[in-house]
Design goal:
5-stranded parallel sheet; 12 strands; alpha/beta; Rossmann fold; 7-stranded parallel sheet; 10 helices
């Protein structure tokens, strides 16, 4: 029998579909996860606190395959997984559709001044003019990070006739290389961050990059809070160096109630909700896990493996 330790959140979706030779043990609390982890050959240790996840992984000394619903692997003990020869599959692309929709929502919110419209409704005030007069049509967007999310964002923006450029290592039309995009930042109305959190991307947007952007530009971050120098962003927004920021992610999370970002009218903070704005996340994750389980039992390569050396 192969012991699989899995989150109870996916139990209704997978339990009746597991092969007979899988001994599934489900946990509801971190304490249960810690107790079960040493027995696991297959582990799905997703918890809200990544520190708790890392602790469960550290205890899983028999682990051969680690699965996660999360796309980002920051906070995971990648060196330990490498040392133990564990295969790690993640949730890359699971939430890509809803996150791409969130990007479009953010752009339209800023372009049409929609937050002011909502505030006017709350005041029961009939506005005589639109607080936002920007059209997406004909504007220019730069997508930094061209994985599952970035590609879906591009697809949706093209439907709005947005002129989209992307940053990627592979040359292609409308593509900037990693050493080209900084010199071109001043051309874009929208700068969209969709990169993984790695040492290479840590604080990749700082004071210099913000100063290079158009004064009317909007910075959109649906990656990780760590990819922006947040102090530099606060300074840039306060001084109107850029027009606005739409931030689904911050550093830290939750953002402290006294953080200056909350008070900036040109900062839109959406509390890392983009991936949760759907009802299909666990269904998609369960289907992917069961498909990979069949491959695992057949000795085939698993889909959506994390490159432990690169961190994504």
């Amino acid at each position: 029998m192969t012991i699989a330790v899995l989150s109870a959140l996916v139990r209704p979706l997978v339990e009746t579909r597991l092969p007979a030779d899988i001994d599934a043990r489900f946990f509801m609390t971190k304490e249960e996860a810690f107790a079960l982890a040493p027995h696991a050959e297959i582990g799905w240790f997703d918890m809200y606190d990544k520190g708790d996840m890392a602790e469960a992984i550290a205890r899983a000394t028999k682990l051969k395959w680690l699965n996660s619903i999360y796309a980002g692997v920051d906070g995971m003990p990648l060196d330990l997984l490498t040392q133990r020869g564990v295969t790690f599959t993640n949730g890359v692309g699971i939430n890509a559709i809803t996150i791409a929709e969130y990007v479009v929502m953010g752009m339209l919110t800023v372009a049409k001044g929609y937050r002011d419209v909502v505030r006017a409704q709350e005041r029961r005030e009939w506005l005589q003019d639109s607080p936002g007069k920007v059209e997406l049509f004909g504007s220019k967007a730069l997508i930094i990070g061209y994985g599952a999310i970035g590609s879906l964002v591009e697809e949706r923006l093209k439907a709005f006739n947005v002129d989209v450029s992307v940053v990627r290592r592979t040359p292609a039309p409308n593509t900037l290389s990693p050493d080209q995009w900084r010199a071109r930042l001043g051309e874009f109305d929208w700068v969209i961050l969709a990169v993984p959190a790695t040492p290479e991307t840590d604080k990749m947007i700082g004071a210099a990059e913000l100063a290079a952007m158009k004064p009317s530009a909007t910075l959109i971050n649906i990656a990780r809070g760590s990819v922006i120098d947040q102090d530099a962003l606060v300074a840039a927004l306060s001084a109107k160096v850029i027009g606005a920021a739409f931030l689904d992610v911050t550093d830290p999370e939750p953002l402290p109630a006294n953080h200056p970002l909350w008070a900036l009218d040109n900062a839109h903070i959406t509390m890392h909700l983009s991936g949760r704005a759907q009802d299909k996340m666990f269904v998609r994750s369960a289907e992917r896990f069961l498909e990979n389980l069949s491959r695992y039992q057949a000795g085939e390569a698993l889909h959506h493996q994390v490159n432990l050396a690169l961190g994504y």
